[in-house]
Design a protein that fits this description.
3 helices, mainly alpha
């Protein structure tokens, strides 16, 4: 079912691209990024609410949306990046006790 939906959306996207209509995703490393687009959009809406450009906006909900989309973007960025972030030193071996009490 999801494969059919994905194929239909892909065909609609290809059809629109041939007509000159493309989805306006922000590009990250020459690839369109939905998560970065969501992050920027929610950040701009939050900023518009803070500056009172948009009246009667729930600032707390907008701030929560910024935090959620930032988590989505940076979570995907860390896991998909070729140069993965290492939290441990390379010399630390798995299972080795590095606590201060052990020394």
């Amino acid at each position: 079912m999801l494969d059919d939906l994905k194929a239909k959306l892909k065909s609609v996207n290809e059809y629109l691209a041939t007509k000159g209509i493309v989805f306006p995703f922000i590009r990250d490393n020459d690839h369109p990024s939905v998560s970065l687009t969501l992050l920027l959009t929610s950040f701009l809406l939050w900023g518009a609410g803070i500056l009172e450009i948009v009246k009667d906006m729930d600032i707390n909900a907008a701030e929560n949306m910024v935090m959620i989309t930032a988590g989505l973007y940076f979570g995907r960025k860390i896991t998909k990046d070729k140069n993965k972030t290492e939290l441990l030193d390379q010399s630390t071996k798995q299972g080795e006790d590095t606590s201060v009490a052990a020394k």
